[in-house]
Design a protein that fits this description.
3-stranded antiparallel β-sheet, binds 2-acetamido-2-deoxy-beta-D-glucopyranose, Cyanovirin-N domain-containing protein, mainly beta, 218 residues, disordered N terminus, signal, 2 helices, 11-stranded antiparallel β-sheet
Length: 218
């Protein structure tokens, strides 16, 4: 019964959105007596500079040397460097904007329910902006909530993707006392503007992440 209902809902959603580029799916119907969350992204803002340091994907950056002078970066010229030449991607460097690099990447996502996510590039995986898990809800990470974002800032208009896992620690209570948790995902329109230096600022209109599956939590 449940599966027929969700199949029909899925088909309806599919046909009514045939005109739009992205296929918008609706949330599932939760098991009887269970609450279901609504995940609405109110605000989405991603800055990816043309010269933001990228020690994860950019081999040139991984190989690059900088001049560490005191607690700052000086011109990376071995002949004039009055500190020491070091790899800009080594850990423990003063900041993520070595001499000659632009401002670091940032990602901000705000949900209507108050969840606020802020990522600032810091050179390792959990802050690998646009390649999966974001820093969203990092403070209560032990509770298992994960908001992952995938996208590209290279073109003016593209499709971003978001996966939302509520996590066992945020499980909701059903009327009969059972605990339930949810996850969902969505493709959304990503619009990027590029300045004269090709720094990209990407935004998205308000969108909802539909809840697509549930799991019982014991
Ligand atoms: C190194 O040289 C730069 C540029 O000449 C100067 O700004 C900086 O203060 C110097 N740093 C040290 C530690 O002497
Ligand atoms: C854009 O990129 C240039 C070159 O990396 C940088 O100097 C500048 O600060 C950037 N602009 C903004 C608004 O971040
Ligand atoms: C971030 O910007 C750089 C420089 O324009 C670009 O090469 C890279 O593909 C961008 N990253 C993503 C995930 O789009
Ligand atoms: C509560 O209801 C769900 C189905 O709606 C069922 O799977 C679960 O076992 C029930 N829990 C209890 C404690 O009866």
């Amino acid at each position: 019964m449940v599966s027929i209902t969700s199949l029909l809902t899925g088909l309806l959603a599919l046909s009514s959105s045939a005109v739009s580029t992205a296929i918008r799916r609706r949330s599932i119907t939760p098991p009887e007596g269970c609450p279901i969350p609504t995940w609405t992204v109110d605000y989405f803002h991603w800055f990816n500079g043309s010269h933001s340091l990228d020690c994860i994907h950019n081999q040139d950056d991984i190989n690059a040397k900088g001049c560490l002078c005191g607690s700052n970066w000086c011109e990376p010229n071995p002949a004039t460097c009055n500190g020491s030449m070091v790899n800009v991607c080594w850990t423990g460097m003063p900041n993520y904007q070595p001499w000659g690099y632009g401002p670091p990447q940032t990602l901000d996502i705000q949900f209507a329910d108050g969840l606020t996510c802020h990522d600032q590039y810091i050179g390792y995986r959990i802050h690998d902006i646009a390649h999966g898990e974001s820093n969203c809800g990092y403070a209560d990470r032990g509770l298992g909530r994960i908001v992952a974002f995938y996208g590209s800032s290279d073109s003016d208009s593209s499709t971003g993707h978001m996966d939302y896992t509520l996590g066992d620690g945020h499980a909701l209570k059903c009327d009969n006392g059972s605990s339930i948790t949810y996850s969902g995902s969505v493709d959304f329109e990503l619009t990027c503007t590029h300045d004269a230096d090709f720094n990209a600022t990407c935004t998205a209109p308000v969108f909802e992440v539909p809840v697509l599956s549930y799991e019982w939590v014991s």
